[in-house]
């Protein structure tokens, strides 16, 4: 039986691996960093719960799953056209909650982001023993759910990160991972601010490990401008923002908490210094139609269309981008 090119590539072949090394000169984290510089730091969160979509739109489309997919695609199209964001973060839980049909929507949403030429971040927050983590990594860095960057949880130990971070190598596609460091939820201090024996905080130990792992890939990417592994740092803790930015100058940040979670643009802007970052806004964009004064009459009449809510989302994305850039300039 003749061997196909795909069969040849699938085996452990040193010549093919060397070819891939030559082809991939930037990892996904640096690609995102460059897009943030080009298009602005906004990350649009597609945490698209069906309840965020008006009944009139769901009825017009036919089903809640199809409504979510159609809304996602229209937001992606408009944001890409407006150049108002550098990436999209897709929170898998909202799609898992819709069952098999929802996971098909999840896969199609990721593809739509990548087809638009923007970075797809899968917010999966996985973390498990090595064998299981390896299966998670394969599930999200290859196959139906292939993405550019994922989020991971380090609190089972740093050995659980390796199955994910090894995908940052050129042979495995230069994929990225954002490791939870200083999150935006109210209870983050319960664990992340615990003091260790040496007087440092637990989150600082995690941050040092993120920096170390990110720097390991410099031999593959000698001209990298940020580490191959990033960190999740919320925009809700002003006292932490400058300190963490200064402690990890080469780490690119994923910054949640801006907008609906109460994080101010000035905190986010502080975190955008040095290696930079991308600032996520989800509900503030997805649900912008609920507060758009131009849609008051249609909203009260229950007559909103897909174009109406997508237009409101696109306007909110433009506003958020400008808000963040203005805050950055004012520092």
TrEMBL record:
This protein's encoding gene: pyrF
Positions of the Orotidine 5'-phosphate decarboxylase domain: 41-301
Family under the similarity heading: Belongs to the OMP decarboxylase family. Type 2 subfamily.
Pfam families attached to this UniProt entry: OMPdecase (PF00215)
A GO term, aspect molecular function: orotidine-5'-phosphate decarboxylase activity
EC category name: lyase
Keyword Iron listed: no
SMART domains in the record: OMPdecase
Name the record gives this protein: Orotidine 5'-phosphate decarboxylase
Stored InterPro entries: Aldolase_TIM, OMPdecase_AS, OMPdecase_type-2, OMPdeCOase_dom, RibuloseP-bd_barrel
Reaction it catalyzes: orotidine 5'-phosphate + H(+) = UMP + CO2
Keyword terms of this UniProt record: Decarboxylase, Lyase, Pyrimidine biosynthesis
PANTHER family from the UniProt entry: OROTIDINE 5'-PHOSPHATE DECARBOXYLASE
Enzyme active site: 125 (proton donor)
UniProt EC number: 4.1.1.23
Annotated metabolic or biological route of this protein: Pyrimidine metabolism; UMP biosynthesis via de novo pathway; UMP from orotate: step 2/2
Domain of life: Bacteria
GO biological process: 'de novo' pyrimidine nucleobase biosynthetic process; 'de novo' UMP biosynthetic process
UniProt cross-references to CDD domains, sorted A to Z: OMP_decarboxylase_like
């Amino acid at each position: 039986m003749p061997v196909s090119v795909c069969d040849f590539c699938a085996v452990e072949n040193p010549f093919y691996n060397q070819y891939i090394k030559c082809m991939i000169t930037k990892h996904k984290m640096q690609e995102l960093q460059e897009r943030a510089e080009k298009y602005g730091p906004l990350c649009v969160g597609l945490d698209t719960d069906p309840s965020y979509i008006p009944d009139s739109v769901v009825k017009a489309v036919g089903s809640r799953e199809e409504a979510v997919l159609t809304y996602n695609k229209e937001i992606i199209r408009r944001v890409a056209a407006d150049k108002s964001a550098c990436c999209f973060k897709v929170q898998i839980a909202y799609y898992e909650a819709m069952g098999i049909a929802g996971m098909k929507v999840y896969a199609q949403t990721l593809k739509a982001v990548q087809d638009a030429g923007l970075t797809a971040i899968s917010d999966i927050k996985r973390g498990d023993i090595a064998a299981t983590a390896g299966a998670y990594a394969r599930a999200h860095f290859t196959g139906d759910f292939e993405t550019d960057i994922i989020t991971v949880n380090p609190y089972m130990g740093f050995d659980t990160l390796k199955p994910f971070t090894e995908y940052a190598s050129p042979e495995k596609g230069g994929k990225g991972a954002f490791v939870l460091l200083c999150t935006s939820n109210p209870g983050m201090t319960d664990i992340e601010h615990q003091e260790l024996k040496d007087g440092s905080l637990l989150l600082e130990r995690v941050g040092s490990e993120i920096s170390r792992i990110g720097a390991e890939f410099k031999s593959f990417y000698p001209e990298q401008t940020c580490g191959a592994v990033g960190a999740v740092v919320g925009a809700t803790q002003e006292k932490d923002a400058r300190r963490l930015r200064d402690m990890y100058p080469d780490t690119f940040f994923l910054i949640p908490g801006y907008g609906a979670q109460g994080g101010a643009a000035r905190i986010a802007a502080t975190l955008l210094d040095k290696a930079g970052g991308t600032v996520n806004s989800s509900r503030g964009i997805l649900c912008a139609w609920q507060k758009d004064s131009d849609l008051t009459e249609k909203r009260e009449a229950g007559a909103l269309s897909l174009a109406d809510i997508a237009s409101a989302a696109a306007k909110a994305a433009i506003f958020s981008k400008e808000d963040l850039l203005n805050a950055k300039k004012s520092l």
